[in-house]
């Protein structure tokens, strides 16, 4: 198996700069207040670079640069912008392993995922929106003999974007690609836990974008995120993060009457109907794999299938086989291509997950596997690893209702179809859901009855750029991906013309 070298060591794909300043107006700009913070790799728990600690003054400088760039960028032809997006995608593809290792080191997730999912999807995302913007058309209608009504798409101008730490590059690209395709300039604030990999991307594509079209200011939520989200100089704020922060973002935005898109938390049900176990075949095998998907990306996925609902008749069998599958998952050095479960993104997150594991035990839920920190050997001993954990309990428990954002699965049983849907929907959230059933009829019905923006049927964790993604209920507002995303980054101009 391939094990990538640690960044900065011999043969490694990437050497991080010792210090990252802000990326403003196409160059590195030191923070106005001169402060930096340490960036720690979850892989070994050690600092590896320091990053500018942004404040309102840095946000202002980034907004100046963005407003200086926005008019010209907004007037480029869609063909020109599409070409830029294609070039970014190509550059990323040529440097895929470098970006993947950078992302793994910053976030702790395994390289097999950053190579095959995070960076690969980010590349495709740029290509999708390069195509989408060229295919978009306005409308024209003849209202009467003398009046024509035209609808045009116009960019918003400068938009703000704030992202979390669980998919730093991919979440950045999900927001950047449609915003740029639509002709906007951007000020982006990454999460303070994972500030470095997105700067590596900025450096990589620096020569492909006009200066100021994308600006990245690092820093903490209230210090850097709030001045961005509450600035009267942005025309939209796009946010991905926790539901509680999402509420604040809406409040800030209300002061300036600007649109928000919010991609927030989840507590997604994964429903297994009795007929999945009709035979010991590849279908059943796929369902078992789906059961274990909660541990992918260390459970740090907003759509993590963190509640498994299993029908009475197959409960014992599927749970036993599922737990065995979880035990087989390989947790270890994230730089090893063989590793399936890596490190949690930060020590805070590690502690939060461990405290939820305690809460589950106190609530009387039964631990079937895992339930503790995993201390790896050698120089990874200080890394932030949690063993994939399966609890058995009831949907009313806190571990079934609150987002843990770790490799922790809560399993319960249901009797019939109505019970399944009731339990699945008994949550504040409505982001993702999984349905496993051989009967197409049953799967379709359940897919329609579950209150969630994305339901996977007989699959999970698939994020194609051309499928709309977003939340019902407290999981958010608006959609990302798909053509409809362009609407979130454009104004409609109507021109009524008489001759
Ligand atoms: P978070 O809300 O703590 O932080 C997200 C970002 O918001 C960070 O950049 C942070 O610095 C910034 N921020 C914090 N307080 C702020 C404030 N007052 N004003 C402006 N910005 C502020 O979330 P997190 O812990 O980084 O991310 C995990 C959460 O993200 C989970 O709830 C997860 O479900 C969610 N998430 C959702 C999706 C989705 O598409 N729905 C995708 C990934 C993650």
TrEMBL record:
Q: Which residues cross the membrane?
A: none
Q: What is the lineage of its organism?
A: Bacteria, Bacillati, Actinomycetota, Actinomycetes, Micrococcales
| Record bears the keyword Oxidoreductase | yes
What keywords are assigned to this protein?
Answer: Oxidoreductase
Which molecular function GO terms apply here? Answer: oxidoreductase activity, acting on the aldehyde or oxo group of donors, NAD or NADP as acceptor
Q: What does the sequence similarity comment in the record state about its family? A: Belongs to the aldehyde dehydrogenase family.
Gene3D superfamilies listed in its UniProt record: Aldehyde Dehydrogenase, Chain A, domain 1, Aldehyde Dehydrogenase, Chain A, domain 2
Superkingdom of the source species:
Bacteria
What residues sit in the active site?
263
Cite a single Pfam family from the UniProt record: Aldedh
InterPro entries in alphabetical order: Ald_DH/histidinol_DH, Ald_DH_C, Ald_DH_CS_CYS, Ald_DH_CS_GLU, Ald_DH_N, Aldehyde_DH_dom
Which named protein is this? Aldehyde dehydrogenase family protein
